[in-house]
Amino acid sequence: MIGSRTLAELGGPVALVVGAALLGTTVSRSTEIYFISALVAVSMVVALYVFVGNSGVLSFGHISFVAVGAWAAGVLSVPAQEKPAFMPYLFGFLRDRTVGNVPSLLVAGLVGAALALLVGLALMRLSGLAAGIATFAVLEITNNILRYYEKIGPGLNTFSSVPETTDLRQATLGALAIICAAFAYQRSRFGRKLRATREDPAAARAVGISIYRQRLVAFTLSGFLAGLAGGLYVHFLPINVDSLSLELTFITLAMLVIGGVTSLWGAVVGALAVSALDSVLANAENGLDVLGRTLEVPAGTRIVVVSMLMALVLIVRPGGLTGGRELSFDPLVRRLRPRAAEGRP
Amino acid sequence: MSTLLASGLTDFLRDARDLQVQVDAIGLGAIFALMAVGIGLVFGVLRLVNFAYGQLIMAGGFALAFASERGWHVGVGIALCVAVVLALSLAMERAVFRPLRGQSPAVMLTATFAVAFLLQSIALLWFGPLGKTATSLAQLNRPVSVAGLEIRKITVVAILTAAVCLALLVVLLSRTSIGLHMRAAAMDFQTARLVGVRANMVSAVAVLIAGLLAAVVAVLLTVQFPTVTPTFALRETILVLAGVVVGGMTRLVPATLGGFAIGYVSGVLGGALPTGQSQYLPSFVFGLVILVLLLRPGGLFTRGGQVVERV
After folding, report:
1. Per-residue pLDDT, A287
2. What are phi and psi of B12, to 5 degrees?
3. CA distance B308 to B190
4. Would you list the DSSP string of chain B?
5. Is A292 part of any domain?
6. Any CB–CB contact under 8 A between B270 and chain A?
7. Nearest residue of B to residue A123, measured between CA atoms
């Protein structure tokens, strides 16, 4: 039997994503893009949440895993005859091989996980600011290598002619799969141990939890999910290395912080809320009809608004919109219960 | 193969020792040291890593470009630059730093990350992605010949300016009462308040001094890179932040040395890497950063045993 806690904790985020997807089926083709983009954002933010939310350690490096995932899926799924056009220097084994959609996503996840494991083996020994700065270093290195090493990808070119398989259905399935994985992890022994280290490192150590090992597990899983999200992203839009840099790091972190860092519910709410706002503003940048008048805001307003919102949330409500708590029916139940008790003879 | 490697290595070492490269590297290190002091001072007093420090420099750069495009006198441009950066620093302190006092370092770092992107995107809206050009001090970028070395005047100016600024700061911190208050606050903010150090005063002064240094850096950087864009000084700030953490965040001197070291190492590597690999300079530098963090997580220039993990 599924308890009411499970129902709320998993059901809430799932219902929100399914709701967004259903809403997405009712709109025109050009508006659908915004819904797919929001669902891809949910994937990335939940992947980030798996590490940052459960461990309480900040990571500026997760877009590295998204980037290598996007690179892997993109390079492998471009049809072989079109590769030389924008990736002339590829290694032979990448040049001659083309894989389908689902395998490319799996490879994306695995590459993300491999990089996260490799990086994590070293970095998970660090804590606090040293860890934050070290993850920045990882982002800079990954970006630098992807930008100039043309044997493993397009370098500065844009990923054109990647099959655009991330439609509304696949984006929804991807987001749901990542949410389920995040939920399963945080309910598992590993997730609970890591949360214990977040709340009180000394007490956690005292009951025999290895902080290093638990963080490494979460980092690797998080890297896998981030790689997968990167795969979804490259199958959605023709991206290049500049789309996978500081700005995306900022946006995903802002989504997580605005929603509430310490809960899955917060990650999903934040990603969808900021995406919705972003879409409205993006529309407004092209001119938006409000009550018969055309409202036009200058290009670039989106980041101004999102960053002001992020700073505001941190100052006024550091726990984020959800207060960092999971969705729960408890307050509702508590309100109903006294009445039920009175009704009894 | 091994001889090839060996000759490559000797080439590398010879280039790295080249005086020209050394002088340029020290010049870069001096500028980075100034930025490190600005970041380290605010961290010392407020326990806040100011990621938006680079955007203060960017704002100063735009002020200089604004003045130079209108043909105003250099002095006016510099005054405008200082005014803009100080006003922005104070606004930041009042609107963001002060309400966040006492929050965890992670929350504060994320908040300043947001402020950084806010300022950057405002600059993008205002000035566009191509930015503006500051040319008032361009003559400082010309080289003079000293004993066969081509030294750009700005390198000398940067080194001297950094030395003067650091000396003034040392005097301020060790000889004045506000300096004493700041050192007390850096050691233990709560206790310092109990014995009568005015918290708002101390944090405002720290932010103002950091702002003044940002304005100086803006002047020095625009001479070398006259095109001011919204991402001006962004990469430099990330490098300096890494340098500060590598050096040792909790004390000002190690933090400054860390900033100098990362500027110096970038300069030497940039001058010594063979042309085929020079585009990988950031990877080499940040790879070194990770390596040092792993070997000395408490800071490269801190003495063992006295490092306090505050975060």
Report:
1. 66
2. -60, -45
3. 16
4. -HHHHHHHHHHHHHHHH-HHHHHHHHHHHHHHHHHHHHHHHHHHHH----TTHHHHHHHHHHHHHHHHHTT--HHHHHHHHHHHHHHHHHHHIIIIITTTTTS-HHHHHHHHHHHHHHHHHHHHHHH-TT-EE--TTGGGGSEEEETTEEEEHHHHHHHHHHHHHHHHHHHHHHHSHHHHHHHHHHH-HHHHHHTT--HHHHHHHHHHHHHHHHHHHHHHHHHHS-EE-TTTTHHHHHHHHHHHHHH-TTSHHHHHHHHHHHHHHHHHHHHHS-GGGGGGHHHHHHHHHHHHHHH-TT-TTSPTT------
5. no
6. no
7. B294
Angle at A28 between CA A25 and CA A29, to 5 degrees: 90
Three-state SS at A236: coil
Distance from CA of A203 to the nearest CA of B (A): 17
Token pair for B151:
């030294």
Q: Which amino acid is at B58?
A: M
Residue A37 domain boundaries: 4-242
- Residue B295's CB is within 10 A of a number of other CB atoms, namely 8
Does residue A318 have a pLDDT over 60? Answer: yes
- What is the C-alpha separation between B290 and A138, in angstroms, rounded? 8
CA atoms within 13 A on the CB side of A294: 5
Q: Per the structure block, which two tokens stand in for B235?
A: 């990469």
Which position has the token pair 């398989």?
A165
Inform me whether the C-beta atom of residue B143 falls under 8 Å from chain A C-beta atoms. no
CB contacts, 8 Å: B106 with chain A: 56-58, 132
* pTM flag (> 0.90): no
Are A259 and A48 in contact by the 8 Å Cβ rule? The answer is no
Contact B92, B159 (CB under 8 A): no
Q: Do A311 and B115 count as a contact with CB atoms less than 8 A apart?
A: yes
For B139-196, the pLDDT digits (tens) are: 777 777 777 777 888 888 899 999 999 999 999 988 999 888 988 888 888 888 888 8
Instruction: Identify whether A255 is part of a domain.
Output: no
In a domain, A326, yes or no: no
* Residue of chain B whose Cα is closest to the Cα of A304: B118
Tokens of A254: 């802002």
Mean pLDDT of chain B: 86
What is the structure's pLDDT at A176?
95
DSSP letters along A116-149, please? HHHHHHHHTT--HHHHHHHHHHHHHHHHHHHHH-
Of chain B, the end-to-end C-alpha distance in Å amounts to 47
Residues 6+ apart with CB under 8 A from B37: B165, B166, B169, B210, B213, B252, B255, B256, B259
Element (H, E) at A195: helix A189-199
The closest CB to that of A136, out of B99, B105, B242, belongs to B242
The whole-angstrom separation of Cα A235 and Cα A170 is 10
| Alpha-carbon dihedral sign for residues B206, B211, B217, B221 | positive
Owner of token pair 């490697």: B5
Length of chain B: 311
Query: What's the pLDDT at A340?
Result: 47
Q: Look up tokens 């993109």; give the residue.
A: A74
Is residue A284 in some structural domain? Answer: no
Helix or strand run (H / E) with residue A294: strand A293-295
Which run of H or E residues covers position A183? helix A168-187
Q: How confident is the model at residue B6 (pLDDT cuts 50, 70, 90)?
A: low
- Please count the structural domains in chain A: 1
